[in-house]
Design a protein that fits this description.
Helix content: under 10%
Mean pLDDT: 90
Shape: globular
Strand content: over 45%
Number of helices: 10
Distance between the termini: 42 Å
Low-confidence stretches: 1-24
Radius of gyration: 28 Å
Number of strands: 40
Largest sheet: 22 strands, antiparallel, barrel
């Protein structure tokens, strides 16, 4: 059952709301944010900002950024097996781990430089601020679409010992235990310990393995200390650790092409595709029908290393995150000096069954490590003068390392000999000269990066009602990469390089994979200006207009497929016994190896209005943005390349209304209209049908292309919206009954770079409800997320090798649970 918002202009919804009788409106509490590196009222900040309080995150059961994105118009976050899709206002980063993020995330002032860090769960937060639009001046590089500013809770010295504990039990044996204890050891020193443990069996039913899919085991803790030896000095230190394990993945294959359609649409499909289809049809004839069922998958997931397994790890992920943050504020006669020191690191091991089939066919293993240090010094004037300012310097250095193997099994755990009478598909394609059962490409990548920035933003208070703010940031960045790849097989051992001619020939001509060893450096520097004019129309109403620029760092692709610079895709000019150095240069990458900076110009006008004597806030923003040199992944027929191929124009409107209708009822409505299109994207990734007609589609060697100029960008639904309500009813015995809920709507959108209509994800609405009873220091609540059990697809894509088949990632279905909380 699905409920859908009517796609009417958002202004009409506001008019209906404003026409409601308002005689008994009550005041809303003030929301404080730090979106401009100062503590300010949300209503005074001339930026499009959504602020979600920590209490809301906990009560609504919002465990991470993916779940939060349902509540923030124009924000989309969804985790796949390896990549994390993070998009704001229709702009984000593709599935290449060499890309930086378009939406920068900051936790307690510390920049989190990688998309994987978006997966770390929420823990004991004060609030989350989502800043839309480029934030280049104060936040810096890699915020071309916006920034997420996360502030965790801290204790206050001098306060008594206190704490809170909450426990939940929900569908799929889900269990959550979280809480904190805090207290003052002296009048000037306080500490807080927060903790969380979350487990669930997963919400997908894998009928091949007869088990749940997407089982999660997550534990986290944070230690916070605050020292205030004088009124002028505040020292805040935080250390947090999160361990996250996922077994299996919530993915399935909903479009499996039947034999007649294969022959009609893909007459030129590869021999590997034909055989994989034949094996699936023969041994798993119900595969297509099973894929149509909701919340059901049918895949083998790999079984880890072993005589019958493929790859190193079964499908799943094991992650470990550590973050240190030291914030020091020192009040001087002329302002506040702030030092923010951060160190963050993570490591994860992934196993991915990338054929998405019940075949032991293709598997990918990733072992990645990341470490980053950053230091910022910032000085802010006291405020309230003719000229108020913030100025600072920033330094950051990081190291990214990963070890990846992609394994292909040509025996398929005995299915090939059972059907075809040969031990390996490679024996067929080589005429019996090459009999390896498994082959692999082994990719090593290490990148060192450092950046330096100096920035300043000043506000001229031209009158009591008019302010002009100008900002400028200068950034220098250097990157150095060392990456190499070797090929291996089951004859010499999957961990050992093999020099077999047929191995190299098959990898090159069928999978565009080669031996190589690249070393490259790049440097960039940018000036990022911003200007903002703010006019207080009345004491409770403000209008603003702004212009800003931003950039996202260039870099080096992490792709393990792709031909060296001397070759065309799929070519292998070497003869048997000839070393590769004699027929191509393995140290010379092609033009797609390095990509340039992405740049943005953004214009925005908006208003923030406090109405009904403080009982309602109405905030809106209209924006127009131009992106140049968009960093995109381009499928070149046999593999992915990276290029700065596209330009885009993005415009839209965002509205946020909050109304304290009575003492006991609060209503919220937020929504967005988005028109995000490619201004120029002539060599977009080609669809599977186009590639069957022209294997080199979109490249200089092809005769066709996929021109998406004027088409919608990825993860850019035209309409998004959220309606919320919170009702509290005091009872005579001192207890309070409460009911609250949300309806989150997202319009249809394109999830892939080729805009294949088969992959387009339909619009959907999810409804959440909660009700319970609370006393002075306790609360019990029953809740349901996605109460109508809507099956929501978060990503859809071409299934590797099987031309015409498409696989999907699925978000959680209906969750029902009960939660108890006690404070002391």
């Amino acid at each position: 059952m699905a409920f859908h918002f009517r796609k009417a202009p958002l202004v009409a919804a506001l008019a209906v709301l404003s026409a409601t009788p308002l005689a008994h409106s009550q005041q809303l509490e003030e929301v404080i944010v730090t979106a401009q590196k100062r503590a300010e009222s949300l209503q005074d900040v001339p930026i499009s900002v959504s602020a979600i309080q920590g209490e809301k995150l906990q009560s609504a059961g919002i465990p991470n950024m993916q779940a939060l994105s349902n509540y923030v118009p124009n924000l989309y976050v969804a985790a796949a097996s390896v990549n994390t899709n993070i998009y704001l206002r229709g702009v984000g980063s593709g599935n290449n781990q060499g890309f930086e993020q378009s939406v920068g995330m900051y936790i307690d002032g510390i920049y989190m430089g990688r998309g994987r860090q978006y997966r770390s769960g929420f823990l004991d937060l004060e609030r989350v601020e989502v800043l839309r639009g480029p934030q280049g001046t104060l936040f810096g590089k890699n915020t071309v679409a916006g920034a997420v500013n996360i502030i965790s809770a801290s204790p206050d010295p001098g306060e008594d010992f206190s704490g809170e504990i909450a426990a939940s039990y929900e569908s799929h044996d889900g269990q959550l235990l979280e809480g904190f204890v805090q207290g003052s050891l002296t009048d000037t020193f306080a500490a807080r310990l927060a903790f969380k443990s979350r487990m669930t069996d997963g919400y997908m039913d894998n009928e091949f393995l007869n088990r749940s899919e997407g089982e999660i085991d997550e534990t986290a803790f944070r230690i916070t200390t605050v020292w205030q030896p004088t009124e002028q000095l505040d020292v805040n230190f935080k250390y947090s650790n999160t361990e996250y394990e996922r077994i299996g993945s919530p993915s399935t294959t909903k479009r499996y092409l039947d034999p007649a359609s294969r022959d009609e649409l893909f007459p030129n499909r590869s021999a590997f595709a034909t055989i994989a289809y034949l094996l699936t049809d023969s041994f798993f004839p119900d595969f297509a029908e099973i894929g149509q069922r909701e919340f059901v998958s049918f895949k083998d997931n790999g079984v880890g290393s072993g005589s019958l397994g493929i790859g190193k790890n079964p499908d799943g992920s094991d992650e470990d995150f550590d973050n240190f943050a030291l914030n020091i504020d020192y009040e001087l006669p002329g302002g506040t000096l702030t030092s923010t020191t951060g160190w963050s690191e993570y490591q994860y091991i992934d196993g991915v069954d990338v054929d998405w089939l019940p075949l032991q066919f293709i598997h990918r293993d990733d072992n990645q490590e990341f470490e980053q240090f950053s230091q910022e010094f910032r000085f802010a004037s006291p405020g309230g003068e003719f000229f108020d300012y913030v100025a600072g310097v920033y330094y950051e250095e990081s190291t990214l390392k990963f070890d990846r193997r992609v394994t292909l099994d040509a025996n398929m755990n005995g299915l090939v000999p059972a059907l075809l009478g040969v031990n390996s598909l490679f024996a067929l394609v080589s005429g019996g000269a090459y009999s390896a059962e498994q082959i692999g490409r082994n990719h090593l990548y290490e990148q060192d990066a450092d950046s330096f920035a100096v920035f300043g933003q000043g506000t001229f208070n031209l009158s009591d009602s008019v302010r002009l703010t100008v900002g400028l940031r200068y950034t220098e960045e250097n990157k150095e990469v060392d990456t190499n790849q070797f090929l291996s097989d089951s004859i010499t051992g999957m961990n050992n390089p093999s020099e077999d001619f047929f191995l190299r020939f098959i990898q090159a001509t069928s999978f565009n994979a080669y031996i190589y060893d690249y070393e490259r450096k790049r440097s960039t520097d940018k000036w990022l200006p911003s200007v903002n004019v703010q006019w207080d129309v009345t004491e409770n109403s403000m209008l603003y207009a702004s212009f800003s620029q931003g950039f996202k760092s260039g870099g080096f692709t992490d792709a393990d497929d792709g031909e060296p610079g001397d070759l065309t895709p799929g070519a292998f000019p070497c003869a048997p016994g000839q070393p590769v150095e004699a027929c191509y240069d393995p140290t010379n990458p092609n033009d797609d190896f390095e990509f340039d900076d992405e740049e943005v110009d953004a214009f925005e006008i908006g208003g923030k209005h406090t109405l009904l004597d403080g009982g309602m806030t109405l905030n809106w923003a209209a924006f127009y943005t131009q992106y140049d040199n968009l960093q995109t992944s381009i499928f070149k027929g046999l593999g992915f390349g990276v290029t700065n191929a596209a330009k885009s124009e993005i415009q839209g409107l965002e509205v946020d209304v909050l109304w304290q209708a009575t003492d006991h009822l609060r209503l919220g409505l937020s929504g967005a209209y988005l028109d995000a299109t490619y201004d120029s994207f002539r060599d977009a990734p080609c669809t599977a049908i186009q590639l069957d007609l022209d294997p080199l589609c979109g490249t200089p060697g092809g005769f066709t292309s996929n021109d998406l100029s004027g088409a919608a960008t990825t993860y850019a639904p035209e309409y998004t919206g959220t309606f919320t309500f919170d009702y509290e009813y005091p009872m005579n015995n001192g207890l309070e009954l409460f009911v609250s809920g949300e309806a989150n709507y997202r319009d249809s959108f394109e999830p892939g770079g080729d805009n294949d209509p088969i992959d387009r994800i339909d619009d959907y609405t999810r409804v959440n409800l909660r009700t319970g009873l609370r006393g002075e220091n306790w609360e019990i609540m029953a809740y349901s997320r996605n109460i109508f059990d809507e099956e929501v697809l978060v990503q859809s894509f071409d299934t590797p090798v099987l031309a015409g088949t498409h696989s999907q990632f699925v978000d959680e279905g209906r969750i029902i649970g009960i939660r108890a909380k006690y404070a002391f």
